[in-house]
Every structure is written in C-alpha cells, then in structure tokens.
Amino acid sequence: MLFKSHYTIHNRFANITIIVSDQVFMNSNIDTLQECWAVDNESYNIPDFEEISRNRLMGRPQAFGTINFCKLTVEPRITDRIEIENGNSNNHVEISGFKLDNRLTIINIYNNPSSSLDLLKETLLEVKDYIDESENILILGDFNHELKLGSPIESFMLQSFGTRLFSPRKSTTNARTVIDGVFGRIEDYNVEVFIYESYASHHKPLVIRVHEL
Q1: 208 neighbors 138 (Cβ within 8 angstroms)
Q2: Mean pLDDT of 51-77
Q3: SUPFAM superfamilies, alphabetically (predicted)?
Q4: Which residue, 17, 113, 169, 172, could crosslink 180 as a Cys pair with Cβ 3.0–4.6 Å?
C-alpha cells in the first residue's frame, strides 16, 4: 500500500466490462484505463473499486477516453481530479488525473493513433500548472507515438515536465510498437514498471509498483 510498503498501479488497455477476469487488475490498488469505450451515461460496477475520474464522453461507445479506479481500501485521500478532452472525432487526446494526499499526481493519457504530436503536446501543456504543483508525478498511458530513445515525445516530456521514461522500452502491441509508457518525476518513491501478458487487454498492460523511500 502506498505510504506503507508498496502501491500497485495497473495501467491497461481494454474494454472495461471484461477486466474483472484479470486478477492483476483486481489485486491492484489503482487501475488506469485507456481507449475504454466508456460514455458519460454508463457506470461500471467493479467489485471493491470506485471510479475516481474519467473523461465525460457523450454518444455511442467508441475507442476514446480514460477512466481511473481506486480500490476502496486504499488509505490516501483522492484530491484535485481533472478531465480534459481535446480535438475532434478523428484527431483527439483525452487526459484524466488525480492526486493522492497531494503527495503523488497521476496523469492518464489516451492519444488517438491519428492524432498529431502537436495536439498531444498542446493537451499536456494545458495541465502543466497542475503537474508542476507536485514533486512526485507519473504520466502514463497510450501515447501512440514511438517511445524510442531520444524520440520527440521523450524529449518534450523531459524539457516540459522534467520527467524520464520509467517503463521498459519494449513492445506492448501486436504491431511490435513501443507506444505505451510511464513517465515520471519522483522524489519520494522508488518506481518499478513491468510488462505482462493479459488476455483481457488489447495491449500488454503495464504494472507499476511505487515504494516509499
């Protein structure tokens, strides 16, 4: 558990109606979803979890959006939630986020494959003040831009937010692309990120373990 021994964040890419079959998801403290086909008038009953922030998307379910869930037994207080949508139906970025007792900020991103790098940068800069308030920040999700060493998105993240890539630079997709990642700027915790195989997910999910130093 965060602030005691460790905190597990499960970052995945799936239709959320089937995630209850995934024990890694169910055993995590926080679950962050991208491209989750969720709309504003739908709610999801996941045992032992509560929804803490999401993108409020209207209309029929589509490959849009992010949602964050927190286990009911997690002790830190959830504060300062954010939700941002930018672009149009063909070129869009969604961000949702929250803070844990104002000690750790988590930003969850879904960037549409057709979306330009400029739109992704613009949307991230909209939450720069929110990010800069925290000494400990994780920016994670489906970036849909290659996260190769020295890539434009990696350079932007370092220059704009002082974050570095914590996740393995390995493929998480059938197309063997490296587009899912975890960036961080961390002062008070040790962060480990693992890739694992899930049959309830379109991409290989990332498991993030955060230990207090």
Answers
A1: yes
A2: 77
A3: DNase I-like
A4: 172
